[in-house]
Amino acid sequence: MKILVTGATGKLGSLVVETLLESVPDKDLAVSVRNPEKAESLRGRGADVRLGDFEQPDTLDKAFAGIDRGGIRQSRLGDPSRLYTGSCSRTGGRWATKLMPA
Predict the structure, then answer these.
(1) Could you tell me which residue ranges the NAD(P)-binding domain spans (predicted)?
(2) How far apart are CA 102 and CA 87, in angstroms?
(3) N or C: less crowded end of the chain, CB within 10 Å?
(4) DSSP annotation of 56
(5) Which helix (H) or strand (E) holds 97?
């Protein structure tokens, strides 16, 4: 099962990724980030780093391709669920868990 975390280099996303790296095989973890260079350390730990920017919706289908489960969080654009759901339906993703900061 391939899991995707969006915003993986941010405050909340990085915590989620750290937890997942301790509990799932690294081959099952993908991360979607606006700046893949900032996620090189995650790539070095086995995560599949993908460009995915909610401000550039054309990047999302490729970022979400082959994903079985995903965690998304509210972005500075507001709730990205609509964009995520559209990409999942086009690429075969199944569902998303919305992650909200406290």
Answers:
(1) 7-68
(2) 27
(3) C
(4) B
(5) strand 95-99
DSSP element (H, E) containing 87: helix 81-91
Sequence-distant (6+) residues with CB within 8 A of 19 are none
Bridge partners of residue 78, in order along the sequence: 75
Q: Which residues pair with 69 in a beta bridge?
A: 3, 95
Average pLDDT over all residues of the chain: 78
Listed in sequence order, the residues at least 6 apart from 82 whose beta carbon sits closer than 8 Å to its beta carbon are none
Q: Which two tokens stand for residue 62?
A: 């490729």
The CATH number given to whatever domain includes residue 38 is: 3.40.50.720
Domain, as residue range, for 54:
3-99
Q: How many domains does the chain have?
A: 1
Contacts of 55 by beta carbon, 8 Å cutoff, 6+ apart: 34, 77
Whole-structure pTM value? 0.75
pLDDT in tens, 36-65: 999 999 999 999 999 998 888 889 889 888
